[in-house]
Prior knowledge:
mainly alpha, 74% helix, two-stranded antiparallel sheet, 191 residues
Amino acid sequence: ALKIDMECEEAHSCAETLYNMAMNCICAWDYEDAQKYLETALKIIKSINMFSVSVCNTSKLYGMLALCYYHMGRYYDSHLYVSKIELMGRHILSSKGEPDYTKWDDDFFFYYLVKGLLAKHDKDYERADECYERADFHQNRTKGFQYYSVAQLALERADLYYEWGKPKKAEQVLNEGITYCREHNLLSKIR
Length: 191
């Protein structure tokens, strides 16, 4: 698909294809290749003065990059991209009353997932748990993304609870994730 997009000189389609390739890499826990695809997609988007591809906002790409950098041990870069999401989503994060998350749930899923990972890395388990709760809120609102998000969040939460000394809660979260994946034929998502 990427070769066809390039031959047709469809920069927008190239960025979209790179996003899809990155998502596939993330699902396979190949964060280094995902990072390369995402960086290239963002360069394309920037060069044609766009703020999104048709399937997602730029802030979702930032969230995916933040996740890649976290798993690559590049915590500063992970923090940097979380900050970029905060800037892009400030109007939602700081809104009074009930925020309108329409079309932002995937972005905020990654935002809170990575904030939770970074908090866990800093041994701030309560904050990590709060962030994972927020990530769960957003994943429950975006059904088309759950093929990835349910398993990822279950694994990260279980890891948090094991590290925090709460093995029963870790097992509960893992079992709920496995049940969801089994019911939706997604068991290949579990490591």
